[in-house]
Amino acid sequence: MSTNFIRQIIEEDLKHNQTSGRVATRFPPEPNGYLHIGHAKSICLNFGLARDFEGQCHLRFDDTNPTKEDTEYVDSIIDTVRWLGFDWGQHMYYASDYFERCYTFAESLIERGLAYVDSLTPEQIREYRGTLTSPGKESPYRERSIIDNLTLFRDMRAGKYQDGEHVLRLKMDMASPNMNLRDPIIYRIRHVAHWRTGNAWCIYPMYDYAHAISDALEAITHSICTLEFEDHRPLYDWVVKHTEVPSQPHQYEFSRLNMTYTMMSKRKLLDLVNQGHVSGWNDPRMPTLVGLRRRGYTPASIKTFCERIGVSKADSLIDVTVLEDCLREDLNEHAPRRVAVLNPVKLIIDNYPEGQTELCHAPNHPHHPEWGQRELLFTRELMIERDDFMEEPSKGFFRLYPGAQVRLRYAYVVRCSSFEKDPQTGEILTIHAEYLPDTKSGTAGADAVKVKGNIHWLSSAEAVKAEIRLFDRLFKDPNPGALDNYEEALNPQSLVVLNQALVEPELLNAAPREAFQFERNGYFCMDEVDGTKESPVFNRAVTLRDSWNSTKGK
Ligand code: ATP
Ligand code: MG
After folding, report:
1. Where are the beta strands (DSSP E) in 308-427?
2. CATH number where 476 lies
3. Ligand 1 and 336: CB distance under 6 A
4. Whose CA is closest to atom 15 on ligand 1?
């Protein structure tokens, strides 16, 4: 486990008994979209700290914005955090549970002259706020009497006013160089039903206010958020100090995850879905956790990634290959090996008798002999990858071409004798070869003939059809989020569907999302949405690091 500045802060706090020996963190998603890989960084950090310091991490839905939120998102968030392997125990909360307390604290702020009802129009409020270089102007309503403020605020709650007629603001400092402190709005009128509280409320607290109170009510010790909230911290502290909350949490900020070739904002991801650029939130090309999971990403690979990228305050753009490497490492170790021929072409072994069959033995994993072997049927007619054959070999091509010898992995060395092609299209139809009977893998003669190429194959007699989906980056531009129009950067090749692919019969038993290394072709998993035993669909999660000619094994 690597350390980071937040971990060090907690260690110091514990050493000096700042939090009575307790560590309580929280992950506070707004249920207005699906979680993405950026959220995973926050989840791993918050739940990881709680685990390592024997504290607790709360899952709290920040459902203060009634218009954009939905139970569909809540359900998915719960499912995804669990899938990653984290547990909040009894500590699942909703900011909306605290609406009544937030309201009571607001009345108390009014009573102490710390908050007032403002009746400027939204445009005027914006105008009065000033700019980064000029101070704001105080509202003419700022000095309302406490009793007037209380009456107005209660009437706001009672539904006597329209949206936008009044707001409740903290009386802070309109001249503050920090714009967040220029009398921030803490309540606004919204005549909309909330998915949890229904029509109980027509005023809703603003995030900064509700968030600080939620943390304090739950006795969070370390409230960890991303850097864009750094300038909000004085407001957070102010709310904790001036409301009658039972504890004093502190906020700490770290830099958010940005990743090359990836858009991370939920708003833009929603747009991708709505515009039909992807098939849904769980499209395997999406950076959402449901998308990555469907693609074949494992919880372990995502946790390794979050550990590897670390936590700091420095802005960073992580190369997407770091994430891909984490998956490769995990699947290389844990995924059984299988054979699939993605673009098949027929290979006839002319000197192998028609009707004869034999079994070849292929290990399920080269480093796990205890995983055993499976049997591959060898017959006269085989299927191999189309691009393992060249009519006229280019320099450095060591696979099949007329006259060349290669090993059919786990079987024999064969020598290519001829081929047939469609005179019209030039397409190769059939390749012919002869096998060298004494060269079977695992027998004494296996090493007698040295070959440079080693290719995989399946028997036409037992191979089964499968649909294979090859994914590439969704964007051609390394930083699509920064573009004015991300649509121009969409990669038209991000999904290639292969309909002719063949796989080992063994793969019909694959469970949804079960991952395999298809030898020489990458890591694949059964698509959990479209794949069935009758018509299997495999997603390529990630390519192999090694190229074809570094793959060994007989
Ligand atoms: P987005 O900007 O993608 O819409 P958000 O910050 O609005 O995300 P929330 O639901 O509010 O999404 O986020 C929940 C938690 O996850 C917050 O604490 C937030 O700081 C954290 N988080 C969101 N995006 C990232 C990211 N890219 N890297 C690290 N943490 C993130
Ligand atoms: Mg947010």
Report:
1. 337-338, 340-341, 344-349, 358-363, 373-378, 381-385, 405-408, 413-421
2. 2.40.240.10
3. no
4. 29
Q: How far apart are CA 91 and CA 285, in angstroms?
A: 32
Atom of ligand 1 nearest to the CA of 265: 3
Q: Which are the contacts of 525, defined by CB distance < 8 A and separation ≥ 6?
A: 295, 296, 510, 513, 514, 515, 516, 538, 539, 541
Whether residues 274 and 330 share a domain: the answer is: yes
- Tell me the best of 6, 26, 42, 260 to mutate to test the pocket of ligand 1, counting ligand atoms within 8 Å of each CB and taking the most: 42
Task: Report CA dihedral (127, 128, 130, 135) to the nearest 10 degrees.
Answer: 160
Task: Decide if 460 is inside a domain.
Answer: no
Beta strands at 464-465 and 428-435: parallel, antiparallel or unpaired: unpaired
The whole-angstrom separation of Cα 266 and Cα 270 is 6
Task: Give the phi and the psi of residue 13 in degrees, each rounded to 5.
Answer: -60, -40
In this structure, the answer to whether residues 14 and 134 fall within a common structural domain is yes
Both 204 and 109 in a single domain? yes
**Residues 256, 313, 386, 554: which is the catalytic one?**
256
Tens digit of each residue's pLDDT (9 = 90 or more) over 82-96: 999 999 999 999 999
Distance 63 CA to ligand 2 centre (A): 10
Q: Are residues 38 and 90 in the same domain?
A: yes
Determine what percent of the chain is predicted with pLDDT higher than 70. Answer: 98
pLDDT tens-digit series, residues 42-53: 999 999 999 999
Structural domains of the chain, count: 3
Q: What residues make up the domain containing 312?
A: 266-337+466-551
Atom of ligand 1 nearest to the CA of 264: 3
Active site residue: 22, 30, 138, 554, which one? Answer: 30
30 is catalytic: yes
Establish whether residue 225 lines the binding site of ligand 1, counting it when its CB lies within 6 angstroms of any ligand atom.
yes
Distance 28 CA to ligand 2 centre (A): 9
Ligand 1 geometric centre to CA of 306 (Å): 14
pTM: 0.94
Q: Which residue in 266, 295, 374, 473 is the catalytic one?
A: 266
Query: Is the model's pLDDT at 133 over the cut of 60?
Result: yes
**pLDDT score at 316:** 87
Which pLDDT band, with edges at 50, 70 and 90, does 548 fall under? very low
Confidence of residue 70 (pLDDT cuts 50, 70, 90): confident
* 430: pLDDT strictly greater than 70: yes
143-158: average pLDDT: 98
Evaluate whether residue 261 is within a structural domain: no
355: pLDDT confidence band, cut at 50, 70 and 90? very high
107 is catalytic: no
Cβ neighbours around 430 below 10 Å, total: 13
Assess whether 364 and 489 both reside in one domain. no
Is it the case that residue 477 has pLDDT exceeding 70?
A: yes
CB 363 within 8 A of CB 373: yes
Looking at the predicted structure, is the pLDDT value of residue 56 above 60? yes
